[in-house]
Please model this.
Amino acid sequence: MTLPGVAHADIYVGSGTLYVGPVISATVKSNGYATWNKNTRVVTIKATGYNMTSGNCETTWFDWEVSNGHFDARAVRQCDLSSSLHQGTSTESVPGGFSFVAMQKFAACYGANNTTSGCADSSQAQIPLGSVNPSLNTSNWITRYWLMKANGTTEYHDGGNSRLADS
Model:
C-alpha cells in the first residue's frame, strides 16, 4: 500500500516523510525520511521498512541543487527483513565557485532491489526522481549510499566527486 508523503518545511531547510511500502497500522508504516539544511549543508536520510517481502527494499533518495546544476544522488537502502531502519548523514563540502540552493529531489521507493519502481516523490521537490542509477553497488560509482543488504551486512560508498553526473 502506498500513502501520500508529507513535507514539513520548505526546500531550503526542512524535513519530510514519504510513506511507501507495507503498512502495519495507522502509525506504523514503511517510509522514507529526510532532513536537510542548505545553510549547514547537512542531509540525513532514513529508510524504514516494515513487513517487507523477500527481495524487496525500502530506499530513500535525496539530491541537492547547487549553483550551476546539482550534486549526485544520495541514497539509503534497507533490505534486511530482520531490521527496520537504516540511515546515513552527509555533510557536503562546497566545491569552489558553487553555492547550495535547495533540495532538488526527495523520493522514497519500495520494491525489488536495484530498481526505482514503486516510488513516491515529495511534493516539495523541484523535480521528480527521474533517471537515477538504482544499483547500489560498484557499478554505480557516483551515488553516495548507505546500504543494508538482505543478509544484514552494511556497505557505504562515498560517491567520489559529487559533481560527476551533473548535466
